Amino acid sequence: MAKSDNRKRGEKSEPPRWSNEVVGIVLICVGLLCFLSVISFTPKDLNDIGFLRDFATERAVGEERHNFIGGVGAVLGFIQVALFGAAGYIVPVALIWFGVVKLVFDGRLWPRTMVGFIILILSGAAFMHALRGGTGVDWSKHAGGLTGWLLGNHIFLPLLNRIGSLLLLGAAYLVGLILLTGQPPVKFIKGVHALILEAMANHRERKEEGRVAAEKEEIRNNERERERERRRKEREAKSAAAVPTPEPQGQQELPLRETPAPQIFDASQRKIDAPKPGDKPFERKQKGEGHLSLSTAGFEDYELPGFDLLDPDTGEEAPEANRDELLATQRTIVETLRAFGIEVTPGDITRGPTITRYEIYPSTGLRVSRIAQLEADIARATCAERINILAPIPGKDTVGIELANSQKVSVPLRELLQDPEFRSAKKKIPLALGKDVYGKTVIGDLAAMPHLLVAGATGSGKSVCINSIIASMLFKFGPDELRFIMVDPKVVEMQMYNKLPHLVVPVVTDPKKVVAALKWVVNEMEKRYRVFAKTGVRNFDSFNHRVRPEKPEVAAEEEEAPPPWNADEEVDMDAIESIAAALESGELGAEAEEEELPIEEEKIPDRYPYIVVLIDELADLMQTAPADVEMCIARIAQKARAAGIHLIIATQTPRADVVTGIIKANIPCRIAFQVSSQLDSRVILDTKGAEKLVGKGDMLYLPPGSAKLERSQGAFVSDEEVERLVDHCAAQAEPNFESDIVRSIDSGGEDGDDEEEISPADEDLIMKCIEVARQEQKCSTSLLQRRLRLGYTRAARMVDILEARGVVGPGDGAKPREVYLK
Ligand SMILES: Nc1ncnc2c1ncn2[C@@H]1O[C@H](COP(=O)(O)OP(=O)(O)OP(=O)(O)O)[C@@H](O)[C@H]1O
Fold first, then answer.
1. Which fold has domain 758-818?
2. How many angstroms is it from 165 CA to the middle of ligand 1?
3. pLDDT tens, position by position, 518-540
4. Superfamily (CATH) of domain 411-750
5. Backbone phi, then psi, for 140, in 5-degree steps?
6. Is the CB of residue 712 below 6 angstroms from any atom belonging to ligand 1?
7. pTM for the structure as a whole
8. Whose CA is nearest to atom 14 of ligand 1?
9. Is 456 annotated as a binding residue?
């Protein structure tokens, strides 16, 4: 019923799938029969077929029938050849193609295909006739058959002659081919060509893989053979040692050892004895010691702190390493790697305070990166909390697998301070940083660094590290030898240091005042350089150790001189006053270029103390005044080393907008504590690794002038120890804050007038000046006068503003100023 309804509406129902398949199979089968018939057709076979005997050619007596399909094949072949000649091959090929279309594709034979087939076969037959020539029907297999004769002889040749017919029929043949296959012949040929090439390439690749696998197998076999041989010789050597046998004559053959026998080191144990009561890491230089007497005069009785201020060793030894446990973990590592087809030989095991390093020797020809790729699998097999793979360990031929210890051992600051390296005179400002995995103390030298960046996530051990660094300095230097400027926008971290006599100004907590403090440091640096130039010395050390000219009258003055730091500052009072005034008016350092600085009038101090600027939490400052802070830090970092000024910057926000490229480029020495991502690690160290640290003092230290990261456990100093230390220092001297500097910094913090005074017209001019400075890469009042046709006063003011904004450097006599903007 439904069927008849459909027909009524003229809708064609889809042929069922099975009918397509049946038709497809039948067509392919008939096509194959026709194909075999035509390819094996010979007129000789027609001798057996009565009604076609006229077309037969002679056959030798007893000659077998040729056609693959027998008599029927002979008839089928004859029909195709007689009708279409050489184009008769097209019939079976087209039938097979139609069958495939029915069976595999959508099952419909498009009119286009049928038209293509007809054009193809007719043009093919006529073409062959035109090619062979002749006026009668040529029944041979290589001609055009009856169709070719009809079309060629009666239509094409009379109309177009031979060449015209061949051209037109050839074109028609190609068109028929396109319609039949739906593919342009060139594309079709290209596709077939590409397929053949791909098949050949695959074949070659398979052959190559087979060869490489065979080579690898051979290498593995050789290695196994060598390993067996080594073990056999070791066994022999052992049994020879156990049962004494007469020594053979001549030289004895030693067992071949490719890798040294593995050893276990326990570097977590403390080896240093408790100090004697009253012992100190450093003794104060004797008072009245030659030319240093002036600056030590006020602190003659200042005593450096002793070990007593630090917690005594509780006697609690770190638990001894469990050999069996370590060996079992090593076996697990080796077996896990072996399960993944990586052959390794076990090496040394070193147990450090926080981590244990298992070394392995990779077999010859093994890419070490393959071991690194199995990090997650080794972590799973060893049930490790965190794992780090050093492939290879820098400077060694082994790969290191570092696993966190279940029981961590802290490294007390006292232990590091007792180390001879800390007391060594080679380190000018020794910093007790920690202890590496081999138990070696890590002692830095701030004078060599000369600036340090400490970064890590919150709770990773940064503050403890900063405390140990400060403590290290307090143990060596009195307030006359080293001064601190502490910047603590978080307010809580550094409050305990407010009593320290070493402070130049109270701990700066207001981010707005930090820029003024940093500018003061820049000025102090510039002032020191001018004094060095005047005294003919090159740096801080040679200045403090220079041979003083004998000046009896000065010596007489010294008798009545106030305490040394004050004396120094009194000497600098003019400069400080100018800084204070400059800070108030927002023109810090502006006078330097235009006026020849009155160095003659500036009294040269006997010696300068080191200045260490500590910034705890750079991120807060970078939020307040990023350009100013960045520029000041860059200026200090670039030039301050020789002036005895050093920077230590800490941050818990290791982002690229906090630790900027400029800051990083100027602070090559870094300490990274645990961070949350590889990205953070790259910001601090320019490489990954810090994300694999285990926290609580586990750190990576990048020493100055080295690309080799040192993993170590940071020194631990408790808040109580720091408090005792600060109390000791504070009890001997009052903090002697320089009121002028404090005032100048305070005014710098509230200062914003300079910006208010600048009108929009001025702002345009400033932009032009910046452009000139950027193009010329130098800046001076006369240059701006010339290039922008300004009067002297206006040009000088512009230079001041550019300096205040950190675009150009301070003035240096008649020389043009340096341009920081590249
Ligand atoms: N070197 C160390 N040895 C042993 N334990 C440590 C060490 N450093 C830090 N710790 C432990 O980690 C805790 C956190 O350390 P710390 O306060 O220094 O972290 P932080 O990075 O400064 O964090 P925040 O930025 O929040 O102040 C400490 O209380 C201490 O218990």
1. Arc Repressor Mutant, subunit A (1.10.10)
2. 96
3. 888 888 888 888 888 888 888 88
4. P-loop containing nucleotide triphosphate hydrolases (3.40.50.300)
5. -70, 165
6. no
7. 0.58
8. 459
9. yes
